[in-house]
């Protein structure tokens, strides 16, 4: 297996244009991975809602709950 340091050394040997291409490829892969995670989370949440594990909330209730969570994490 290649170490992180070895990967960096290999990348530094590439021409700048290829390094930039590699950056874009990695960014796009990370974005796609995150999209898949969000989609999976949504499927789980929808299934939980349909099974009655989640309740209806108004927008105001959701905003209040999010603010509380954000304040607690500071």
How would you portray this structure in words?
The chain is mostly helical and 74 residues long. The protein has one domain (4-72). It has 3 helices and no strands. The protein has helices at 4-12, 16-50, 59-72. The chain starts with a helix and ends with a helix. The mean pLDDT is 95.
The overall average pLDDT, rounded, is 95
Structural class computed from helices and strand pairing:
mainly alpha
Helix fraction, binned, reads: over 70%
Main sheet makeup? none
Tell me the domain tally.
1
Beta strands, count: 0
The separation of the N and C termini measures 39 Å
Number of helices: 3
The run of helices and strands is HHH
User: What are the segments in which pLDDT stays under 50 over at least 5 consecutive residues?
Assistant: none
Apparent shape: elongated
Strand content: under 5%
How large is the radius of gyration? 21 Å
Features:
74 residues, 0% strand, elongated
Please outline the helices and strands:
Layout: H1 4-12, H2 16-50, H3 59-72
Task: Give the structure's gist in a few sentences.
This protein has 3 helices and no strands. The chain is an all-alpha fold and 74 residues long.
């Amino acid at each position: 297996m290649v170490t992180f340091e070895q990967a960096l050394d290999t990348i530094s040997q590439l021409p700048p244009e290829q390094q930039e291409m590699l950056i874009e490829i990695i960014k796009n892969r990370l974005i796609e991975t995150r999209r898949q995670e969000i989609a999976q989370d949504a499927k789980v949440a929808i299934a939980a809602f349909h099974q009655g594990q989640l309740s209806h909330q108004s927008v105001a209730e959701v905003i209040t709950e999010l603010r509380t969570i954000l304040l607690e994490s500071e």
